[in-house]
Each structure stands twice: as C-alpha cells, then as structure tokens.
Amino acid sequence: MSFFRYKRNLYPLFAVFSCLFILVFGFIMAKKIEFTYYLCGLFVWLILFGCAKACLKVLPIAVLIGGIFSCISYFSSGGDFNAALAMINRFGALFLALVPGMSVEPVAMTRNLSQIKTPRALTLGMLIVMSFIPVLKSEVRRVREAMKTRGAGSVMNPKIMYRAFLIPMVTRIVDISDTLALSIETRGFVLDGSAYTVYKKEPICMSDAVYIAGILAGAGLAVIL
C-alpha cells in the first residue's frame, strides 16, 4: 500500500501545519531551556526528513541574527540569562518554522490544495505567490548584472537606482505578469466553479505520519520535562 511507502518530500499540508506549530510553540516555550534542546532535536529531525538543504540555508542566518539580538537582550536586561535565552529561542523557532515550507514545491502545494477542494482562486493565488518569489529574485539578479556590465554605478545613488534598476525591473515584472496570465489561460485554469480533476495526487505516507508524530512527541517531552 502507498501509505507504507517512504518518501523524502513532505506532505504539503503537514509541512504547513508543522510551520505554524513550531512558530506558535516556540513563542509559548521560549523562556524554557528544554525548548532549546527541542530546537536542536528538531533541526536533526528536519534533516532526516529531506529538509537538509533548507536547514543549512537558515542556520547561519539564525545563528547570526539570534546571537546579535540575544546579546542585546542580555546586556539591556542587566545580564539576565533567561532574557537572552528567550530571544535566541524565539529566533530559532522562527527560522526553523520556515524550513518545512521552503522544502515544499509550489506544484505539490497546488495539487494538495486541489485534492481537498480548496477554492480555485485560493489555489491559483498560492501557486502564483510561491512561484513568483524565485522568479523575482532571478530578475533582480539579472538587472544588477546588467547594471554592472554597463558600468551604471552604485544602486545606492537615487538617480541610478530609478533609471537603471527600478524602470527595467518594473518592465520585467509587467512582462512576466502578461506571460503568466497567458500561461494560466492556456492551461485551462478557470475560477467559475467548474469541475476539475487532479492528475497526480499527493499521497500521505508513513513517513509523513512519523514526521508529525516526532514533532508532537518532542514538544510533549519539552513540556513535561
């Protein structure tokens, strides 16, 4: 049976649930040293379930920003270790909560939402938002590279930023929007409530159940201990 199959990618809705749970649980338990242990275990747990790349991306940022704000909190509170611990735990929860969502592909999320009969407007909006962010980053990089090639100067100069960065960037975004609208129309996306089917469904597997059970069990231990 497909349920007993192991897969490396997370079930999209379980990934979203874990994002919200980690964030909320983190802000509730931030002052507990047990939550620090929970974050360390959670980091390893996410790596085991196919989120290694996302974990390695957020780790240096979480350590840097969390370390800075925890030091600020420590000295501003007169050397209160608990205040520093709470601050670094909050940032750790915030950045680790991003990891499951970063590991979900936009197409997989769209399929999952379609499976549970989510309104097409919401499904389509989710697909566009999740797909547009990488495209936007790519376009920003291309415009910056074009500026360097032409010797336009520093982007910090208001005149250069307006003429050499903002205008080309807005033009590219408008072109991408037109292309996206045509692409959606040619692929048969409609918002009038017409019946539709999902060709490739996202199955729930044993690994997904183990993933959620591990997160909840770890949280339970953090509360009990």
- Overall radius of gyration: 22 Å
Q: Which range best describes the helical content: under 10%, 10-25%, 25-40%, 40-55%, 55-70% or over 70%?
A: over 70%
How many strands in all?
0
Arithmetic mean of pLDDT: 82
Global shape: flat
Please explain how this structure is put together.
The chain has two domains: 2-104 and 203-224, no CATH class; 107-186, no CATH class. Helices cover 75% and strands 0% of the residues. The chain starts with 11 loop residues before the first helix and ends with a helix. The protein contains eight helices and no strands. It is mainly alpha-helical and 225 residues long. The relative contact order is 0.16. The mean pLDDT is 82. Helix 1 (12-28) packs antiparallel against helix 4 (81-102).
